[in-house]
Design a protein that fits this description.
Helix content is about 65%, strand content about 15%. It folds into two domains: about 350 residues, ABC transporter type 1, transmembrane domain (ABC transporter transmembrane region fold); about 200 residues, P-loop containing nucleotide triphosphate hydrolases (Rossmann fold), CATH 3.40.50. It is of the alpha/beta class. The strands form four sheets. The protein has a six-stranded mixed β-sheet with strand order 8-11-12-6-13-14, with helices on one face. Strands 3-7-4-5 form a four-stranded mixed β-sheet, with helices on one face.
Length: about 575
């Protein structure tokens, strides 16, 4: 999809994006809410229709100095105004409530798609930068899409209803406009209607001509904002590494470069919005006086009263305002269209990634078994380049195997394949069920929350006494008293302490198969020896480790080596 360029396919995708909710399990309540909005909006428009009649009566009473009619008009205005306010307020309330329900439904669906089959991982690892800030799509764009869509729908309904109601009134107030041309007399019926239509069409065309580039600019602006924010978040997360390199100067250049791109695009948006503001404000100001200019000749010739003039002006203004709906909302509409593009692009990326990876996964047969068996397994990179070829071996339950090889030879990728994270493989694998297996990466995941929640992740349950005892055994005795403390433990704990906490998880869950990818790289040898000794003492456990240290050899009974893409041992 090219930003700012909509075609039939884009409109079809937008319809599908919108229709999902209205055909979902919540469709009954959604349509009831929408019906309520429609009824209340039409009732509010009816109040404005009554108010238009009031203009004639009230201003005529003022012109005639009829005090009784004036006071009666004020009372009538109060009743009409109260009705209009009540209908408008409750229509807005239902609209906001429906938008919230729609957002909740869409957010849940997108979260399900993003987290299913590790899609968040696949987009990050294999999309080649095509997937842009999924967090922003889910947290911000869904909110903007649902609220703006309902706002535009309600506004369009109000505009159409107003046109339908007032255009007949304006037509009836329009006396035939007669003029002589080339010796012939011509009569234009409903000239006020045609004047309002022409004024609105010209204004809408000029607005689109001036402001259509805002769609692409807003699309790019959101991307640049997200890139700048992501760069700052990344600097915060890698602050220590940058500090060790004294790379603050280079990071400052990177941040300033991204911010400069953001500023340049912002300047373009400001300039385009300035042009659009000139047009829309001029259009709005002229619209105030224009109906008086059109209807003044009839008033000055005493064909209508002051009340009639005000009624014509009000009626003309309502018709013109409704016909010019897109002029008034064009800037917001441009922002909404760029939001739609981002959501559709996000959908497209997830669908494409699912198609690509699932198609590759079909080439690899995965079956459950008591042992781990690889049969003629080939592993490739996302671009199709072979990484590992002809892998065949069997690891029996209870074995302790260490996988060795040069850096970049594919050891960690092989573990990803076994874990079901790497889709680019073919052949056949027999392996134990995931319920009996636990994979420990070099940098364990630390959820934000209490230290207890981090230690129990992903199991989520465990006795506190057992947890404290295991933390002491694993060298985390000083943290045992802080189990209820909350924080971002990936930044609070050192990498070595995070790895120790990962071993706590192993001893809590007691899986039959444990896969460790350099899981002790940040520990001292004494701690590593103690934890591996404890791990090896667990009955019936199978260990498959990736590591470079020779100190690990004594805890394993078998060595598998990767050499030039082949598995030996």
């Amino acid at each position: 999809m090219v930003s700012g360029q909509w075609n039939r396919q884009t409109v079809k995708a937008l319809w599908q994006l919108t229709a999902r909710y209205w055909k979902s399990e919540e469709k009954k309540s959604a349509w009831l809410y929408l019906l309520g909005i429609v009824v209340l909006t039409m009732a509010a428009v009816y109040m404005t229709l009554l108010l238009n009649d009031w203009f004639n009566e009230f201003y005529s009473a003022l012109q005639n100095y009829d005090s009784g009619a004036v006071y009666h008009g004020l009372v009538r205005f109060t009743a009409i105004a109260f009705g209009h306010i009540a209908f408008s307020v409750y229509a807005y309330y239902l609209q906001q409530t429906l938008a919230l329900r729609w957002r909740r439904w869409m957010t849940e669906k997108y979260l399900s798609c993003w987290t299913a089959r590790q899609m968040f991982y696949r987009l990050e690892m294999f999309s080649g930068g095509r997937s842009d800030n999924p967090d922003q799509r889910i947290s911000e764009d869904i909110n903007l899409f649902t609220s703006r869509t309902l706002s535009f729908m309600a506004g369009l309904l109000r505009a159409v209803t107003t046109i339908f109601c007032f255009i007949f009134v304006l037509w009836s107030l329009s006396e035939p406009l007669s003029f002589i041309l080339f010796g012939s007399t011509f009569h234009v019926y409903g000239y006020l209607v045609w004047t309002a239509l022409a004024y609105s069409v010209i204004g809408t065309w000029l607005t689109h001509k001036v402001g259509h580039k805002l769609v692409g600019l807003n699309f790019l602006q959101q991307k640049l904002e997200a890139d700048f924010r992501y760069a700052m978040v990344r600097l915060r997360e890698t602050s220590e590494s940058v500090a060790f390199y004294h790379g603050e100067g280079e990071e400052k250049k990177i941040l300033e470069g991204r911010f400069h791109k953001l500023l340049v695009n912002t300047v373009y948006i400001i300039r385009k919005q300035k042009q659009l503001s000139w047009l829309t404000n001029s259009y709005g100001q002229i619209a105030i006086i224009f109906p008086f200019v059109v209807a003044a000749p009839r008033y000055l010739s005493r064909n209508i009263s002051l009340g009639g003039l005000m009624q014509v002006a009000n009626c003309f203004g309502k018709v013109q305002e409704s016909m010019s709906y897109f002029v008034d909302v064009y800037a917001s509409l441009a922002e909404w269209m760029s939001c739609v593009e981002r959501l559709l692009t996000f959908d497209e990326h997830m669908d494409r990634m699912a198609e690509e990876t699932e198609g590759k996964e079909k080439k690899l047969a995965r079956k459950e078994g008591e042992a781990l068996t690889l049969s003629h397994v080939n592993v490739s990179l996302p671009d199709g380049k072979p990484l590992l070829t002809g892998l065949s071996c069997t690891i029996e339950e209870g074995e302790r195997v260490i996988l060795k090889g040069p850096s970049g030879s594919g050891k960690s990728t092989l573990l990803r394949l076994l874990a079901g994270l790497w889709p680019y493989g073919e052949g056949e694998i027999h392996l134990p069920s995931s319920q009996n297996s636990l994979f420990i990466p070099q940098k364990p995941y630390m959820p934000i929350g209490t230290l207890k929640e981090a230690a129990l992740y992903p199991r989520g349950e465990g006795k506190e006494e057992e947890l404290k005892k295991l933390m002491e055994i694993c060298g985390l005795a000083s943290w045992a008293a802080h189990l209820e403390d909350e924080g971002d433990w990936s930044h609070i704990l050192s990498l070595g302490e995070q790895q120790k906490l990962a071993f706590v998880r192993i001893f809590l869950t007691r899986p039959r198969w444990v896969f460790l990818d350099e899981a002790t790289s940040a520990m001292d040898e004494e701690t590593e020896n103690r934890l591996y000794r404890l791990l090896s003492s667990l009955p019936g456990i199978t260990l498959i480790s990736v590591g470079h240290r020779s100190t690990l050899d004594k805890y394993h009974t078998r060595v598998l080596r990767i050499r030039e893409g082949r598995l030996e041992g």
